[in-house]
């Protein structure tokens, strides 16, 4: 099919070529021969009047025009795929569709696990492919490799796509219960004197959290262990004097299952705000919108439950005897 003399079949080839920057790898992904891919590249070069890819040493580099085509070509294909997947009506109970979701194990523990359980009855044919947040998460999202992304607000702000906050949490410090049995609270001096387990969810995030201390206190934490997931944090402090700084919701669940003790963080830090982000082209997708609403509904129910528990705890504390 042609549009303004352009063969639309070449749009898929162009997208893969711009991402791979290699004819052989592009041919493998497209499941066509290398000669056919080379022929398609020749036709694209002829249409645009540009080399698109040029040899630089052993690598192929994109020309300025090719770089400017990456975003609009990918956006056009994603919108086309979304349009094909759309149906005039949406029935949750009869849907058969998979959405990829990128989120930390923290978000899986405190929110998404409940969503998945709810879907088992309300939309059994809707499958969530939940993946750990990749190191190149922003790039992966822009490539369309992720249908729904849940990340901290400061990173979501870099994406010019629809987004909404799903939860807010504060930071606490976790220690081995034996190592902290004589401690009533955790002072800033104690915090810096002890070794730390650092939770690194990507090079950029880890660096941002570590450097947060230096301009404020002129000191750095002594990081003795790093890990890329929250769920193993208790296992890395039990039997040691180390501290791990993490989010309260998950830490309180862990404190019920592991011999650990929690302390309020001995410093002021902005609360964590987790934001759900989706592509513009999925904004009107009925199934995707239903999934977003389901996630927000679970988050809202949990928020009200936590507020009720906090009120009951205050009343119990205030009651005489």
Could you outline the blueprint of secondary structure elements for this entry?
Elements (H helix, E strand, L loop, with lengths): L1 E2 L2 E2 L1 H12 L2 H8 L3 H15 L4 E4 L2 E4 L1 H22 L11 E6 L2 H18 L3 E6 L5 H6 L5 E5 H4 L6 E7 L1 E6 L11 H6 L1 E5 L3 H9 L2 H4 L4 E6 L5 H5 L5 E5 H8 L4 E5 L7 E6 L8 H33 L3
Describe this structure in words.
The protein is α/β, with parallel strands linked by helices. It has 3 domains: 2-85, Arc Repressor Mutant, subunit A (Orthogonal Bundle), CATH 1.10.10; 95-159 and 282-311, Periplasmic binding protein-like II (D-Maltodextrin-Binding Protein, domain 2); 171-270, Periplasmic binding protein-like II (D-Maltodextrin-Binding Protein, domain 2), CATH 3.40.190.10. Helices cover 47% and strands 21% of the residues. The protein is built from 13 helices and 14 strands. It has helices at residues 9-20, 23-30, 34-48, 64-85, 105-122, 137-142, 153-156, 188-193, 203-211, 214-217, 233-237, 248-255, 286-318; strands at 2-3, 6-7, 53-56, 59-62, 97-102, 126-131, 148-152, 163-169, 171-176, 195-199, 222-227, 243-247, 260-264, 272-277. The protein has a 5-stranded mixed β-sheet with strand order 6-5-7-14-8. A 5-stranded mixed β-sheet has the order 11-10-12-9-13. A two-stranded antiparallel sheet has the order 1-2. β5 (97-102), α5 and β6 (126-131) form a beta-alpha-beta unit. α1 (9-20) crosses α2, α1 (9-20) packs across α3 (34-48) and α5 packs across α13. The longest helix is centred in the last third of the chain and has 33 residues, at 286-318. It is globular. The protein starts with a strand and ends with a helix.
């Amino acid at each position: 099919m042609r549009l303004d003399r352009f063969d639309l079949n070449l749009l898929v080839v162009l997208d893969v070529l711009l991402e791979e920057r290699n004819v052989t790898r592009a041919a493998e992904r497209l499941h066509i021969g290398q000669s056919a891919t080379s022929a398609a590249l020749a036709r694209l070069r002829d249409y645009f009047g540009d080399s698109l890819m040029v040899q630089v040493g052993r690598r192929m580099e994109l020309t300025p025009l090719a770089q400017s085509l990456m975003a609009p070509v990918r956006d056009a294909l994603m919108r086309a795929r979304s349009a094909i997947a759309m149906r005039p009506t949406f029935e949750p109970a009869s849907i058969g569709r998979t959405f990829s979701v990128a989120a930390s194990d923290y978000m899986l523990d405190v929110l998404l696990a409940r969503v998945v359980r709810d879907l088992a009855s309300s939309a059994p044919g809707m499958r969530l492919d939940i993946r750990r947040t990749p190191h190149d998460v922003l790039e992966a999202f822009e490539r369309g490799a992720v249908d729904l992304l849940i990340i901290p607000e400061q990173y979501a702000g870099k994406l010019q796509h629809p987004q909404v906050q799903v939860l807010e949490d504060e930071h606490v410090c976790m220690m081995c219960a034996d190592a902290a049995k004589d401690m009533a609270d955790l002072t800033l001096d104690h915090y810096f004197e002890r070794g730390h387990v650092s939770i690194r969810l990507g090079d950029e995030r880890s660096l941002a959290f570590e450097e947060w201390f230096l301009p404020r206190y002129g000191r750095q934490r002594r990081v003795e262990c790093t890990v890329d997931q929250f769920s193993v944090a208790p296992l890395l402090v039990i039997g040691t004097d180390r501290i791990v700084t993490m989010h309260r919701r998950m830490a309180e669940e862990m404190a019920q299952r592991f011999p650990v003790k929690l302390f309020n963080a001995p410093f002021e830090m902005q609360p964590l705000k987790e934001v759900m982000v989706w592509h513009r082209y999925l904004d009107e997708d009925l199934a995707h919108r239903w999934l977003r609403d389901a996630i927000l509904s679970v988050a809202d129910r949990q928020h009200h439950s936590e507020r009720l528990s906090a009120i009951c705890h205050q009343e119990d504390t205030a009651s005489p005897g």
